[in-house]
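Progress report, Aim 2. The chain analyzed during this reporting quarter is listed below.
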Amino acid sequence: MLTKLKVATARRALLDNAAQTAAVVHALTQHAAAADRPTWEEADRATWWLLDVARLAACEKQWALLDTAVQGMCDWDCRFDQWKPQDDIKDWMRELTGHAESVVASALRAQADGARNLHELADDRGVDQPSVASSTTRKAWSAQ
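Predicted structure tokens for the chain:
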């Protein structure tokens, strides 16, 4: 399965054609809702893989890929609500700055169901990024 591919190992291939990588990310996201429901382990792997793609996209300023990866990650997290991946997602979001933070906040607003699982960030003193924090509030996702 794709999620066994290490993002760090495939870094160059993923970045050489970011549009194709975004299409793969989108296809993986659609698999979350598949009739043959993935296992909890597959859900964890998919969520972590999408988080790794999001991290890579943020570092390399691949904004469209970052948006797609975050929305996919939130979709998986919304459907499976796994705490361990959520902890890693929140840790990463606490570190975001600049345009990457803005792109992630926008993706969270677009994927409001997934942002619900990250609502603790809204009250987290470690989050300096007001747009990420406000995108995870109950008010933000209840407006959807």
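The two ends are 33 Å apart (CA to CA). Residues 137-144 have pLDDT under 50 and may be disordered. These observations will guide the mutagenesis work planned for the next reporting period.
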